[in-house]
Here is the input.
Amino acid sequence: MTATQSIPARPGPFRYEPGTLALLIIDMQRDFLLPGGFGESLGNDVGLLRTVIEPLRALLAAARAAGVPVLHTREGHRPDLSDCPPSKLVRGNPSQRIGDPGRFGRILIRGEYGHDIVDELAPLPDEVVIDKPGKGAFYATGLADELQRGGIRSLLVTGVTTEVCVHTTVREANDRGYECLVVSDCVGSYFPEFQRVGLEMIAAQGGIFGWVADSAAVVAALTTPAQLDPSPIRPV
Ligand code: TIU
Here is the structure.
């Protein structure tokens, strides 16, 4: 018998073995969350995304207190843009594209102030930070190796934006056998309708990509002792 934990979720309880769970925080970078960054350069109002910071800060504190490993990602590119496909480079406002000077340094370029994670969610020295050139966190990164090394099978997925980097990452993770719980108030979109539909898509069809629950349900589980459970959870 293994000790398992269960979180009330849609479309049904999300069960996991506590030692195999990690918190994945996608792209909570200044370039997406602060005025003057990449998100705004694409024509977006960054205000909606900022609602994610406080609930995610509380969830991050609970995960750290429970000993749940935390992995952060950052979307961005090398200063010479050699890892940025031309198709990505030419999109958006022609006067403010990836690599151009923005209010917080060159937009979405590694090492620049705007590329880094917002102060409220700053990684601790022992937490993994994955730099990714794409929308998905598995593409051209060491994330799969990190998860395997840590024995991780279940992911609490948070960050921005719901329908772009969160969705792409959840789909990638699902195809690789990871069980993903998307935390509804800890993911954000520039578009309210995409937020709603993005979350519905995850849990539809019996959980086609994963599960959805709010941070209150997740924090409650993280602070409750696991139960001995006779029915095994299918391994990755
Ligand atoms: N534009 C948009 O919604 N998102 C991105 O470009 N990247 C992430 O979602 N991180």
Q: What stands out?
A: The longest strand covers residues 179-188. The two ends are 18 Å apart (CA to CA). The mean pLDDT is 94.
